[in-house]
Amino acid sequence: MSASRRVVVTGMGSVSAGGIGGTAVVAQILAGAPSPIRPVRAFETAGWPSRLGAEVDDAALEGLLDPGAARRLSRICRLTVVASRLAVEDSGVPRGPALGLVVGTEHGDFRSSEEFVTGYLKRGPSGLSPMIFPSTVMNSMAAVAAIEIGARGPSITVNQATVAGDLAVARAAALVRDGRALAVVAGGVDEMFAHVYRRLSEMGMLSPAAGRGTEGCRPYEPDHNGVVLGEGATFLVLEDLESARARGAVVHAEIRSAAWGNVPAAPHTAPRRRRDLHSPALRALVSAGVAPSAVGTCYGSGNGDPALDDWELGLLAADRLPEPRSLASRFGQHGGLGALRVAAALDRLNKVALSPTTLVMVHGLARGGCRTALLIGRAA
Amino acid sequence: MTRVVVSGLGVVSPYGTGAKTFWTGLASGTCAIRPLTAIDTEGFRSRIGAEVPADVLASLGPSRRRARADRLAMAAAREALADADLSPTDRACAGLFVGAVGGGMLEAEAWYWEETRTGRPSPRIGALRAILPSTHAETLSSRLGLCGPKETVVMACASGAASLALGFDLIRSGAAPLALCGGVDALTRVCFMGFNALRLLDLEPCRPFDRDRKGMSIGEGAAFVVLEEAGHCRARGGRAYAELRGAGMTTDAHHVTSPEPSADGMVRAIEEALTAAGRAPGDVGYVNAHGTGTPQNDRVEALALARVFGPGRVLLSSTKSLVGHTMAAAGSLEAVASVLTLQHGLVPPTANLRVTDPEVPFDCVPETARAVELDAVLSNSFGFGGQNVSLVFGR
Questions:
Q1: For residues A367 and A302, what is the distance between their CA atoms, to the nearest angstrom?
Q2: Cβ separation of B276 and A1 shorter than 8 Å?
Q3: Are residues A261 and A364 in the same domain?
C-alpha cells in the first residue's frame, strides 16, 4: 500500500424515487422536487399497518438496460447496474484493476431468496432454479455491477441497517486512502419487497408505529412515529486527487476524513446513550485537524424512528455539532440514502455561500450502534 | 511500516470447539464430512456435509434461542479474545470485522417453511430479527464490549479472508491497534439446495485436486483471530502466533459464478499480497488453497499458482477436504490453519486425494500431514462474484 492519499468525489449516479441520472439530475432532485413518498403501488398493503413508500418507477429504467440484462438480472441488480454505470459515465473514471467497488445494503436480494425457496416448496428439488440461487447471496449486486463497470480492484459488499450507504462510502474512502485502489465506486442499494415491507410494518418499525398518529416520515420531529421505506441505488465515484487531476476529471468535493465505529448496543436497539468515548464524528474532525465549529452543516441519518432520531440528536449535541438535516423524508429509508446525503453535502458546498473553510458532515447512526462520520469540504 | 501480528485464535469447526481441536483434526487428516442431520436432505443428489455436531452445539452456552450462526460466532470470538488475553480497555478500542453470508437464515427458513405449508402465522417469526448477516457483528460487539470500527463483509466464500484483510488495513492505517476478525456461517437449506441445484456438490466427501473430483462438500463453522499491531501486542505482554504480512483483494469482473479462465484475478490477488508482504514467490513454502473440489475452481487455482510460483514450486493442500466448504467461515478457518501450520511446521493433508489431476502440477500433500520448516504461507480464498482474497502469513 502506498502513503495516505487525498480522496475526492468525481461523479455520481442515482436511481431513486426522485429520478434517474448523474450529478445534474441529482442536483435538480435535491433542489426541491416534491417528495415522491406516496401509497405503495407495487404490491397490495390492505390490512397492513403501513401503506406509504418511495418507489422507483420501473418504466424509467427501460432503455437504460439492454433487454438481455433486463431479463437476466433480478430487480435489485438492475437498480445497481444502472446507478453504478451512470456514476462511472458521470465521472469518466477508467475501468480496470485500479477501480474498486463498495456496495452497501440493508436487506439485499430477498426477492430472489423467496423466489428460489418457493420453487422448492411448490415442486420439491426439481423446482429449484440454479439461475436464481447466485442472487440469494448478498454480494450478487456487486458481482453484476463489477462486470458492468469493469471494476477489477477490490469489490466489497457491506451489510448494515440504516447507514449501509454511509458505511460503504467511508469504506471506499479508506480503500483509496490506503492505496488499495485509485478510484472506488461506492454507495448503496435496496428495493421495496412485499415480504420485507409487511414484516417491518407488523413489527412496528414503519410509520405509524403501533398505529400512533399520522403515517409519514418526520425525522427529528416531535411527532415522528416510524420509518417510511424507500428504494433505489445511488453511487459516487471516489478517487485519488492526483489521479483525478491527471485525467482532467471534474472534482466536486473532497472527503476530508472518514471514520466509523460502534456504540455498543444490543442488536436492533437504540439506547439513547449520549456518551460515545470513541466518537467517529470527533475522530473525523481530529483527522482533518479542525474543531466542531468548522462544521457548517450536518446531514444526519434520522429517518423518523423515534428512538434512533433521539439517540442521534443526543450524540451530535454531545459532540457540539450542528443539528442535523435529514433526506429520509424525501427518498424514504434505503441503502442508497447515505450516498444521497453525501451528494447533498456536495451540492450544498458548491451552491451555498459558505466560507471556503466550512465543512459539511454526513453523520450516520443505526440501531445496534454502528456510527459513521464523513467530513466533506471543497477540494483545494 | 506497521507490523500486524495474530495474537489470538478461536474456532468452532465440525471437529468441535477450540483451535486446538481444530488443529488436531487437521493434522491427523480426519475427514469430518458425513451425512447431514441438521437439515432435511431427502430427494437431493448430495446428502452429505460437515456440520458442527449436535452435542458440541449444545455445549456452546445457555443462549439456545440465538441463531445457530450467532452461537458459533460467539463461541469462536470469545475463545479468540480469551486466547489473546485482552483487557476490557483493549477490547474497547478493538475493531470488529465479520465475514458472513447466511446470517440467521436457517431459523428464518424454518419460520417460512411452516407458514407456507400451514397457511397460518408461525410463532417462529422472531427468527426474522436475526436473519441479516449484520446481526452477528451487533451481537458480538454488544456482548464482548468492542467499540472500534465494526463492519459486516459479504463477499461470498471469500468473506472470512476479507475480514482479515480489512482488519489488517485498519491497523496499518493507525485507526485502531487491534481488531477481532473472522467469518461465520451455519448450514442453511438455501445454501444446500442451491449448490445441489448447480450440481456443484460431490456425492462422496470432496476430493480437491483429484483427477476424478466431482465437486465440493458444504460445511459450517466459525473462526476468529485477534489481529494486533506488533508493538501493542509486545507492550502488553501478548503472544504472537504469526505475522500477517500482506493481503490482496481483487475482482474478476468476468462472471457471477465462474472464475476467469485465465486466472488473472487470482494472480493479481496473490501478487498483491506478496508485494504488500515484501516477499518473493520463492519465500512461500506452502499454500493453503481455496481448493473446493469443483473441477473448474481447482483447475483455475492451479493455473494461478503455476503462473505465480512455477509448476511444482510450492506445496499446497485443501482444508475443505477435511471440514468441507464452510462458506463465509472458510477464509478465516483457513487463516487459522495457515497460522498453526507455520507454528507447528506441519502441513495438513488433502484428504481423499488418490490421483492428482495432471492439470494440477503440484504436490498436494495427499492423505498424510507432512513436517516442513516454513517461513511464509499463503492462504487463498475465492468466491461467487469473482471475489479473490489472498493472505500472506510469516513467522
A1: 11
A2: yes
A3: yes
Instruction: Look at residue A4 and tell me whether its pLDDT is greater than 80.
Output: no
Query: Which residues of chain A lie closer than 8 angstroms to B149, CB-CB?
Result: 259-262, 280
Residue A254 has pLDDT above 50, yes or no: yes
Q: Which of B157, B181, B206, B364 is catalytic?
A: B157
Q: To which residue does cell 459486516 refer?
A: B152
Q: Are B177 and B229 in contact (CB under 8 A)?
A: yes
Q: What is the ipTM of this complex?
A: 0.97
> A136 and A49, same structural domain?
yes
**Do the Cβ atoms of A171 and B93 come within 8 Å?**
no
Residue B190: which of A108, A116, A278 has the nearest Cβ? A116
Known catalytic residue: B191?
no
Bridge partners (DSSP) of residue B392 are: B246, B378
B43 has a chain A CB within 8 A of its CB: yes
Q: In angstroms, rounded to a whole number, what is the distance separating the alpha carbons of residues A155 and B331?
A: 16
Domain B4-394 has CATH 3.40.47.10: yes
Give chain B's residues under pLDDT 50: none
Asked if A214 and A305 sit in the same domain, the reply is no
End-of-domain residue from the set A218, A253, A288: A253
Query: Distance from A161 to chain B by nearest Cα, in Å?
Result: 8
A1 belongs to a structural domain: no
Q: What is the pLDDT of residue B262?
A: 97
Q: What is the pLDDT of residue A210?
A: 75
The grid coordinates of residue B194 equal: 442451491
Q: Does A2 touch chain B (CB under 8 A)?
A: no
A57 pLDDT higher than 80: yes
Domains held by chain A: number: 2
* Contact with chain B for residue A45, Cβ under 8 A: no
Residues A235 and A337 in one domain: no
Same domain, A266 and A365: yes
pTM, two decimals, is 0.97
Which residues 110-129 on chain B approach chain A with CB closer than 8 angstroms?
112-113, 116-117, 125, 128-129
Residue B344 annotated to the active site: no
CA–CA dist A112, A50 (Å, integer): 23
Asked whether the predicted pLDDT for residue A1 surpasses 90, the reply is: no
Q: Which domain holds residue A323?
A: 256-377
B392/B374 Cα distance (integer angstroms) = 12
- A221 and A321 co-located in one domain: no
Task: Please give the pLDDT value at position A35.
Answer: 87
Q: Give the model confidence (pLDDT) of A321-348 as tens digits.
A: 999 999 999 999 999 999 999 999 999 9
Q: A243 and A263 share a domain?
A: no
To which H or E segment does residue B70 belong?
Answer: helix B68-84
Q: Is residue A352 part of a domain?
A: yes
Classify residue A2: in a domain, yes or no: no
Is A278 within 8 Å of chain B by CB?
yes
* Chain mean position to CA A328: 11
Average pLDDT along chain A = 95
Host H or E run for residue A77: helix A75-91
| CATH code of the domain in which A348 resides | 3.40.47.10
